[in-house]
Amino acid sequence: MLTSNANSAAVKAERPLLEVQDIYAGYDPNQDILQGVTLHVNEGEIVCVIGPNGAGKSTVFNAIYGLLGVRKGTVLCNGRDITNIRPQDALKTAGITIVPQLRSLFSQMTVHENLELGMYLSTDKAKIAERIQYVYDLFPRLGERSKQEAGTMSGGEQRMLEIGRALMWEPRLVLMDEPSAGLAPIITKSIFKAIRRLNQEIGLTVLMIEQNARQGLQASHRGYVIELGRQTYDGAASDLLQNANVRKAFLGGH
Amino acid sequence: MTRVLEATGIVRRFGGLTAVNNVDIHVDAGEMVGLIGPNGSGKTTLFDCLSRVQTIDEGTIVLNQTDISRMKPHQVAHIGLSRTFQVLRVYRDLTVVENMELSVQWGDISLLSSFRRPDKETTKRANHLIDFLLLSRLRNERASSLSGGQRRLLELGMALMSEPNIVLLDEAMSGVNPSLVEQIKERITILNQEQGVSFLLVEHDIRFVKDLCERVVVLNYGEKLAEGAPDAIMENDAVIEAYFGDDGGGGEHDADF
Fold first, then answer.
1. Number of residue pairs across A and B with CB atoms under 8 Å?
2. Is B133 a member of any domain?
3. Domains of chain A, with CATH numbers?
4. Stated pTM of the model
5. How many domains does chain B have?
6. How far is CA B157 from CA B31, B44, B135, B204, B244, in A?
7. B251 touches chain A (CB under 8 A)
8. Nearest Cβ partner of B257 from A160, A213, A215?
9. What gap in Å lies between CA A16 and CA A78, rounded to an integer?
């Protein structure tokens, strides 16, 4: 768990960067998967949404990012209503980007080309080159491998490239859907370490979903527990980690 | 009590990864056993080993007093074991009753069998099971028009066509709406109580199996972490911690990005 310190970006006292207010959403017309989820993310924070399989974690992301219609409730970004934003507008107009759970790289394109695609909204070559260098400075490993086909790198390196690509357009908020998915436990640990480092070095604001509740919370400032489409607990990550009822929720307890 | 299935010291490796490590598991006649564990704990791999879909590197499996450790899946079906799959395997363009009829031809690989019409006994059993599973209304519908839960029931029906005395169900209740979950549970209970069919149920979520099973086996990292009554398992600290997630192990081999 993290505590705010001098290195992390100052947490502003004003409105949160992202506010999700009592949203309802679902795939089947007659069934709401989300039944009133409320959460917020302050600028400079890492916030983790945890919950057992099938609780609705990914659905929360889909609803925020406009991939799934919100039936009731609102999503605000920087105080502005972005409920049911079109996914293709999320980055350009709200500064929100997403790192999906499933591998999203173009595996037969190079590291460099994949990063260029993170700037597909721009034709400014100098700016693109500058941003790529910025990502290489953050992740020297990617710089060493700039000409390598993305699909030939290790799982952990590919995840770093996905995160690096998400940073290309200077997003204000990065949604990360299970950064640990499909990675060996030891690699998972490094990924969370890198996310923490980005938060401290460049003040990156992150909202993530994690299936591995323990590691997800250890990397975060605050967390929300979602069960059956509703949040059941929220608070400082350190408190959630100590809460026996939260732990039991994952086995289907109570 | 008669042992229907007894697996001892099962090991399954994929290169350097040991997916199932020295696991013992058994099911007695008329028993319903749950097999649970966190994501990636080896549940489905163990299931594949027991139903002979995957080879085992070590260990023995005895089914109805016959050593099946080296047998093929269709041979196992003839000695009384059927299974379903987590990813549904029904023929989408065939009707419910056609899927049922076809399922008993599994393992019969002669060319002629593809042309043969199902015999009267097969059709009769298929229709009987369709009624039992409350799918009568959908008998002549294509499988593609069924909901996820209805397809789970169809798969259960297909597994029952070979008249098994033990059925292995792989996540039969995940992704199914709550009312159909109850229907599936009820049908399983009737099969168990009235016909003495044994079940081994794989689920991620213990809530699906705790009402059905008197005994639950918990896997973690391919090893048996705990075994016991559902209520005791739900209070078991090691199981609670495993479901909450690992901490990534020691720091020595950290890779930096």
1. 80
2. yes
3. 1-95+171-254 (3.40.50.300), 104-170 (no CATH)
4. 0.80
5. 1
6. 19, 20, 10, 22, 35
7. yes
8. A160
9. 7
